[in-house]
Give the backbone structure.
Amino acid sequence: MKITRYKKLNKTLAFFSAHYNYREPYQVLIDATFCQAALKNKVIVEEQIRKYFQVQVKLLTTQCIILEAESLGAPLVGATQIVKKFLVHKCGHEGNPIAASECIKQMTKDSRYIVASQDKSLQSSLRKVPGRCLLYLHKATPTLETPSQASKKWVQKKLKNTLTIDIEKIENLKSQNGINLTEEKPKSKRRIPKNPNPLSCKKSKKQSVNNIQTLANSSKPPMKGKRKRIKLPRHVKEFLRDN
């Protein structure tokens, strides 16, 4: 079996186990339509179902299912022989048999059965009831149907009610212990805007122009200073000549 099919199977079984108390060994209630489809596709029912589930399962049928298959005569001779191989479960209609579909509906009211059937009307009827698990043959492959919308909605409603009850319990415990339920949360302090970081500020164009000019001026070679001449008075010059 492919990994994806195995994961889907485990997910579906986990859903019904968690929310509707399905337990091992899983009880599979098989009708004649399922056996007829298995015969047509050359499927060995018991072998393929056990191989598909890979857990403990019980394959069951009822007296009503067998009697209805027998009453249909030649078209379902092979299916009747197959369905008779399974354990006949007491349905409460012994001596007063009813239609197989009605028998299955009544059987699934109080017990957790995985219904193996190809009957479209029966499948449609069971999908409307929360907690009903269906198995059918897709060609030669047993397939456990994912939970119906009715089953999912019932679980969602149950979880919502449970959550509401838990919240009420918490509120009651708080009130009993004197915890103020209307206690205000401390107000957060208002942040005062700070001055911007000078390193992250963009410099003005004037400063950049001035910086460029200073760099240009600093790149020029320094000019040599002129030599200053000192004028001497005339009498000093004459004195120097005489000496």
